[in-house]
Please model this.
Amino acid sequence: MREFGYQRASDVAGAVALLGADPDARFLGGGTNLVDLMKSGVERPARLVDIRQLPLDDIESTPGGGLRIGATVTNGDLAAHPEVRRRYPALAQAVLAGASGQLCNMATVGGNLLQRTRCGYFIDVTQPCNKRVPGSGCPAVEGEHRNHAILGASEHCVAVHPSDMAVALSAFDAVVHFETADGAGELPLPDFYLPMGESPHRETALPTGALITGISLPPAQVAASSRYRKVRDRASYAFAIGSVAAALDVRDGIVREARLALGAVASRPWRAVVAERVLTGAPAGPKTYAAAADAELAAARPLPHNAYKVTLVRNLVVAVLTELAEEAAR
Ligand SMILES: Cc1cc2nc3c(=O)[nH]c(=O)nc-3n(C[C@H](O)[C@H](O)[C@H](O)COP(=O)(O)OP(=O)(O)OC[C@H]3O[C@@H](n4cnc5c(N)ncnc54)[C@H](O)[C@@H]3O)c2cc1C
Ligand code: SF4
Model:
């Protein structure tokens, strides 16, 4: 492991300035991903700027019923917050479905958004990997890709984004707020994560050196009737092989509004806009849910060992929407 310096930032401007002073520096949130990557040699920062003391650890209500979540709120505090559980239950469920209690108590919201892929070739520095070393190749395409992408992948990289939290945030139109030396900025989640394309090493549109300061969730009544369901190889402590965040408003047997996002299928949380269009205004029921899932998954381009994900995600979408509709009818 490379020797590194450590500094603790006490205000946002100071944190941005410290990072800007050293192109080899990284922000340190909970360290649950960054420190692992430093140990394996994937990340080799010269300096860590610890942001855990910044005053960004609040969750506040916004006018109209939305929420503003600070970047250093821990995953544990996010999942336990009564307004998160009441207004956006799928978000709390998604966070609880990820990692262990100990990790959730360390990990922060900003770090969760920026955690790196768990592709085995990416974390093994003896292997080529376009994401880690641009232009070196993608051995996963011909090799081990059982957990990899079925949507939006490119020949240059087929890795998936590992975050559960980001899938739920995507369903609720979250906006990421950040601070740079030039001032504050914001990016809606669909613009925050870049499509895979030819440059898999570029994962987000966050400007270089930007500090994520928080996330805002716009008010959404439908979000109160939402659910996150994750499928994984073992019951706990494992990343998703497929997941769904869904919200549904059914009245008089008709779907009035639907939100749907898929996880572990693409390099970023996959907002299922095609399925949402099929659902909206259609009669509620398994036929509609299956048609919506099929319409979304028509774009799937699975590899030989991950084609199972197409069926898995289809069944997951139908099951979760059915449960939400049944719950609302009670
Ligand atoms: C064993 C294990 C199992 C896990 N299982 C799951 C799972 O099932 N689902 C899941 O979603 N996650 C899972 N995780 C991942 C975990 O959720 C992430 O490691 C965690 O969310 C990262 O947050 P952190 O604050 O520790 O980030 P860090 O490790 O501190 O940082 C991650 C990256 O974000 C940058 N960063 C951090 N904060 C900011 C900020 N405010 N602004 C700009 N850059 C920032 C850092 O520089 C770094 O590049 C697991 C992790 C482990 C170790
Ligand atoms: S899938 Fe992406 S992360 Fe994995 S080896 Fe290929 S380029 Fe690297």
